[in-house]
Amino acid sequence: MPSSGQGPRVLYWFRTDLRLHDSPALAKALSLSPSALFPIFNWDPNYIYGHRVGINRFRFLLESLQDLSNEIKKLNGDSQLLLTRGAPQTRIRELCEKWQITHVAFEEDHNAYARHRDAAVVESLKAANIEVISQEGRHLYPIKEVLKNTKGQPPTSMSQLQKAVASLGDVAQPAETPTSLPSPCPPGSDKADIKKLFDLISDLSSYKEEVGTPDVDLNAAELGGQRKSGPDGEVTSYDTVAAGEKSKYKEEKSPFAVPTLASLGMEEPEVKLAEPIRGGTTEALRRLKKLTEDPAYLSTFAKPQTSPSTDPDAPSTTLLSPYIKFGCLGIRHYWHTVKETKKKHKGAKTDVPEGMEGQLLFRDMYAVCEAAVGDAFHGVRGNKISHYMDWYLPTVYDKDGKQVEPRPRGDDVSEERLRTFKEGQTGFPWIDALMRQLRMTGWIHHLGRHSVAAYLTRAQCWISWERGAEIFHEFLIDTDDASNDGNWMWLSASAFFSQYFRVYGLTTFPAKYDKHGYIVRKYCPELKDFPDKYIYAPHTAPKEVQEKAKCIIGKDYPFPVLDEKEEKKHCLDRCKAAYDSKLFGNSKEVLEGKAEGMLRKKHGVPDPKNFNYKENAANKIRARTGRRRRLLFPTPSTP
DNA sequence: AACCAGTTGGTGCG
DNA sequence: CGCACCAACTGGTT
Which residue ranges are recorded for the region named Disordered (predicted)? Predict the structure, then answer.
C-alpha cells in the first residue's frame, strides 16, 4: 500500500492516445484527484522487434512523444512524459511496486496484439491489488455497445453500421482537457523528483531476461537500411531506445527523455517534402484549425472526388489520419469540430458515406468488424467474413494451424511481382509512383491505395491481400490494423465489396484525375520528361520519344512486369471461380488446407510453377542489358 | 455480363 | 385478412 496517506497514486499509460485533450481515460484518472500522476510511455520489445516499422512512422512517433512530453510540462513544470522500456506484462507491475502506484489508467486499444497484451497486464495488476481504469476513447462510439446492437455480428456495410449506432445517440462530447496535472512524486515524498524515480527502477532486470533474445533485428534491413552501427557493432534499436534505465549508448539529457532518430543511429530518410508530416498533438490541432477556416471544404468534402494524384505537399484530403492513428487528435473532438464548422457553410453539404463524417464512421465500422471477427480478421484463414480466394503467396500454416514464419518462398513469378511492387519497379508508372511515395513519405491518398491494392490482388497479380497489408503496415504512418486489413479485404473483393469486375485501369484511372502525371514526375523522376500522352504508359512511346525524354524503357525504367489486360482476364476468371465455390476463410476445406487444389482444378488457371517467367518482356530486356535496376529511393526498413 | 444483401411488390394459400 | 414465398429491383463511399 502507498506510504503517503493522501489521494491515489496514478500511473497513466500512454499507448495510441498521445494527447491530453478528448481523453476519457485520462479524465477519469484525474477525477480521482490523485496525489501523484506518472505519465509513462513504455517501449515494448514486441513493437521494436516484432513489428515492421518504417522510418517515417518511427519518426512520427518520436515527434509525437516529444510533443506530448512538452504539453505535460506546460501543465506541470515538474512533470514530463516518462519513457520506460520492457515487456509490459511484467514492467508495468514492476513500476507500480517501485513507485507505489495504486491505480493504472489507460485508453483501450482493440487490436489483436493490444487485446492480449492488456489482458495479461490487467491480470498482473489485479493480482497485485492495483486498480485498473480502462476506458474506450479511440472511436466515435463505444465498440462494445455497437457490437451488442449487432448481436455480435460484423457490420459489413455503412448502412449496417448506421443501423447499429442509431440507438446510441449522438457521438459523445469530448472529455474536458486538463488544465493541471499532479506531479510524479517518488514514494514518501510530495515533490516531483525524476532522478529519484529513475534510481528506483534502474536496477530492474534487463529486457533480455524478460523476453528472450529477439531473433529479428529490424536494423538488418533487407532494403538498404541506413543504420549506423554502434561502438561495438552490435547496437540494436532496443538498446538505444532505452529510457528510464541504464543503457550502453544512452545520450539523452534526462533519464526518461524521448530519443531522437539520430540518438537511435537512424538517419532521416531522403524526403524532399516541403512540409513533412510532423508528429504531435500540437501539429494535429494546428492542421485542424486550418480546416476550420475553410467551412466550404469540410462541408462539400466528397472522398471519391478528391484526387489520388496528390502527395503530402499538395494533399486533396485532410492528412489527419496519422494523427488519428497515434491518438494525437481526439476523434470526438474532430467529429464535433467538423459538425460545427459545417454549420457555417450555407450551400449544399455532403453526407455519409462520402462526406467527412462518413470517413470517420468507416473507421468505426472496421473496428467493430475486427472486434466481431477476432484475431482471424488479420488474415484469410479462419476469417469468417473473408472469401477464400486461391491467392499466390498466401500466409502459410503448419498442420497444427500455426503460422510458418518467415513465410516460405512462393513461386518465382509471384515473388518477383511482389518485389517489384514493394520497390516501385513494376514498369507501371502509376503503381510505381504510389509505392515510392509510400516509402518516401509514409502516406498515399486513399484512392491511390485502392489502385495499388487492386493491382496486387484481384486485378493483376493475384497475390494475397495479406502480403499487401504487410507492406502497408510497414510503411504507412497512419496504419491501423482494423482499417488496413479491412480495406485490403475490401479492395481484393474478399469482404465488404464484391463487384470484382470493376477494375481500375492502370493508365485510364489516374488520367481521369491528372493528365499531366504530377506524382509520376515527382516520384519517378526518370520519367519526368515524357509528354503527357505517355506518362502512364511510357513503354508505348516510340523510340524517338523515349530518346528525347532521355529515358529508354527497359534500361532507365523497367518494362511492365506483366500484361495488364491478360492478367485482368485471368483474375476475373479466378474471382468467379472463388465466388462460385462459396468458400470462406473459416470453411472446413480451407482449415484443412484442401481449398487451393479444389479451386485451381476448377478455374483451370495455370499453376504459377508453370509460368515461364523468362518469356516476360521485362526480363528479356533485363537479360539483354545485363543489369538490374537499382532502387531509386531506398527507404530504410529500420523501426 | 460478371456480386450480394436488403427491400419491394406481387402471388397464392390458409 | 394475414402470412409465406419469391421474383424483381436497388444500392453499394470511389
Answer: 149-189
